[in-house]
């Protein structure tokens, strides 16, 4: 991703957050190699750093599934939540087409396509974190947001859709 693409991604994220009245913090960071490094760069616990997965339904529509660090998507639970029999994880090219973000930077904020957002219920177990981390559309930044602001701003669904890794 070149500087122009990076700036454009961060602008999309910032504008979308503003339109949704969601306070966010973009945190500059160096390249990271692990969940732990990424969480440390944001000043949060690894369990509070969420990966944003683009999930394809059998009718060729998509949803976002936000899964905390240390957990994995539970396909059966998500199928049940969505009332479908088949889901898949599209390749990075399809994810790019849907979001206009590179794999590893995907976020619901400023996505090219507006998709339903499903957040794993474990994020809201007590004590609920002050902030969670997400991709920012750019490898040089992380994004911090209060979990309830994310739910409210995206009208997200909180559901049990993960399992321990």
Describe what is shown at a glance.
This protein has 165 residues and is of the alpha+beta class. The protein has five helices and ten strands; from the N terminus they run αβαβββαβαβββαββ.
Topology (SSEs and partners):
Layout: H1 3-19, E1 24-28, H2 35-42, E2 50-57, E3 62-68, E4 71-73, H3 75-82, E5 87-88, H4 92-99, E6 117-120, E7 132-135, E8 141-145, H5 147-154, E9 157-159, E10 162-164
Parallel strand pairs: 3-6, 6-9
Antiparallel strand pairs: 1-8, 2-3, 2-5, 4-10, 7-8
The class by helix and strand makeup works out as alpha+beta
Order of helices and strands, N to C? HEHEEEHEHEEEHEE
Q: Tell me the β content.
A: 25-35%
Question: What is the total number of structural domains?
Answer: 1
Question: What is the top-level CATH class?
Answer: Alpha Beta
Round the mean pLDDT to the nearest integer and report it.
96
Number of helices: 5
Give me the count of strands: 10
What is CATH's topology name? YbaK protein
Percentage of residues assigned to helices: 25-40%
Low-confidence stretches: none
Description:
The chain is an alpha+beta fold and 165 residues long. The chain is built from five helices and ten strands; from the N terminus they run αβαβββαβαβββαββ. The model has no long low-confidence stretch (mean pLDDT 96). Residues 31-151 form the YbaK/aminoacyl-tRNA synthetase-associated domain. GO terms for molecular function: aminoacyl-tRNA deacylase activity. It holds the Pfam family tRNA_edit. This is YbaK/EbsC family protein.
């Amino acid at each position: 991703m070149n500087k122009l693409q990076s700036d454009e991604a961060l602008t999309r994220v910032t504008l979308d957050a503003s339109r949704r009245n969601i306070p966010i913090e973009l945190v500059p960071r160096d390249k990271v190699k692990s969940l732990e490094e990424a969480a440390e760069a944001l000043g949060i616990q690894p369990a509070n750093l969420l990966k944003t997965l683009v999930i394809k339904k059998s009718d060729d529509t998509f949803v976002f599934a936000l899964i905390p660090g240390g957990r994995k998507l539970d396909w059966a639970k998500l199928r049940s939540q969505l009332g479908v029999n088949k889901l898949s994880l599209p390749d990075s090219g399809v994810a790019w087409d849907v979001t206009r973000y590179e794999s590893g930077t995907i976020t619901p904020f400023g996505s090219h396509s507006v998709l339903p957002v499903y957040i794993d219920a474990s994020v809201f177990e007590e004590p609920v974190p002050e902030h969670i981390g997400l991709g920012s559309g750019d490898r040089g930044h992380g994004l911090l947001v209060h979990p309830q602001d994310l739910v409210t701003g995206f009208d997200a669904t909180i559901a049990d859709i993960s399992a321990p890794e």
